[in-house]
DNA sequence: GCTGATAGCCTATCATTGATAGGTTGACGC
DNA sequence: GCGTCAACCTATCAATGATAGGCTATCAGC
């Protein structure tokens, strides 16, 4: 009897989870094309094929959807970084990690914005620290890579944060102010990487 | 006669300009306290003491107000930079320019957000390139300072853009993700400046 | 089988937002 | 005086995020 209850519950739960995932899929697709502020709950609902209020059975509010997508975005970045992390060593690894980070931002701008630039209420109640946790997990790849090059953990942490901030600056300003007369992009990226990693290769 | 007409016109125009400035003052004050998205046109109108639709006699839409404040923000940053620029020379000047930039971002976060982080439609019609021009004027201070240290203008431009991006990264991530466990702030800033300016002092 | 509970969804409706339409008023040139 | 016009108002829109309350099909328990 107990077993039956659990099976039923899990089946129902699975359906609910499916629908939730479906909502996130469609939301991600829409965000990708129209940006975080260019998508309404009604558009999401229509894409899923349900009514707009039905979204609120799965998410407490619109921001909660954004937080979920933020976590997905970190997941995408994390995969890119892990691939590089596993394939390389030392200074080269650091440089390629940075390059992978920048590539992620420029190739998946919507994801990047949600992850690092969106004004999501990360300090509120609903599962918001999960976004922070996802970010920390991703960041730890960079920190660990620095840990293998810099002995002092504190210094490695500092270096990783500094370099991360530097990369974020380039990516975010390229995304936010594309009308600025930037130097040719690949040159800018290379120069930026040289600057950020210059300390490593004297 | 002609003179009278002109006087009257300019007086009327002056009144209109005053009201416009008044709107901007109140909007700036409100943006400062509640952020760009936390202020409604009704709040601005109430602060000024006029009806909400009356705002549209002075600005085509809400974004136009934001663009004006963006220009004001650049003005504030520009004053800070010019003060440093006039008082120093060489590598020290570069470092203090960067520090002034970072201080601006941290001390006037609302202004910084409007200037560098807001998703204002900078490519639209209404006086939007004025925001870009203001930004370029401000940036030119940094570029010129680099021009006095790096001979090749192209290289100076590249260096200035790179360093600017690096600073922007630190400021913007501190503003956007304050919940991240950053290293102690003054250490982080110093390390970041060391990194960005390291090339200058071998 | 029947039945009561419940998950999942719907329609109807809110309050708030940015924005528009159209009328009123008061100053000013003639 | 009188037309003109700028500045402003009230009334109202459409769109948006969010809530209230009701319908229905599934399913455990008898």
- Helical segment tally of chain A? 8
The ordered string of helix (H) and strand (E) elements of chain A is: HHHHHHHH
Radius of gyration of chain A: 20 Å
Task: Please indicate the percent range of residues of chain A in DSSP E strands (runs of 2 or more).
Answer: under 5%
Net shape of chain A = globular
Regarding quaternary structure, what we see is homodimer
The chain-level structural class of chain A is mainly alpha
State the total count of DSSP E strands of chain A. 0
| Portion in helices of chain A | over 70%
What key phrases describe this protein's structure?
202 residues; mainly alpha; globular; DNA-binding
If you had to describe this structure to a student in words, what would you say it looks like?
2 copies of one chain form a homodimer. Chain A has 202 residues and is mainly α. Helices cover 75% and strands 0% of the residues of chain A. Residues 1-12 of chain A have low confidence and may be disordered. The interface between A and B is large, with 40 and 41 residues.
């Amino acid at each position: 009897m107990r077993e039956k209850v659990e099976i039923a519950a899990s089946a129902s739960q699975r359906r609910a989870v499916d629908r939730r995932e479906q909502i996130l899929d469609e939301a991600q697709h829409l965000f990708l094309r129209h940006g975080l502020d260019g998508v309404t709950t009604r558009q999401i609902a229509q894409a899923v094929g349900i009514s707009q209020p039905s979204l609120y059975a799965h998410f407490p509010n619109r921001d909660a959807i954004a937080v979920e997508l933020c976590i997905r975005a970190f997941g995408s970045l994390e995969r890119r970084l892990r691939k590089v992390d596993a394939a390389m060593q030392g200074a080269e690894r650091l440089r390629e990690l940075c390059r992978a980070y920048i590539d992620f931002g420029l190739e998946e701008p919507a994801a990047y914005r949600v992850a690092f630039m969106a004004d999501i209420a990360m300090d509120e109640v609903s599962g918001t620290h999960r976004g922070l946790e996802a970010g920390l997990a991703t960041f730890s790849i960079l920190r660990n890579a620095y840990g293998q090059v810099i002995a002092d953990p504190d210094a490695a942490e500092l270096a990783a944060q500094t370099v991360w901030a530097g990369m974020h600056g380039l990516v975010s300003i390229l995304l936010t102010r594309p009308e600025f007369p930037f130097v040719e992009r690949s040159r800018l990226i290379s120069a930026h990487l040289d600057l950020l990693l210059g300390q490593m290769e004297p």
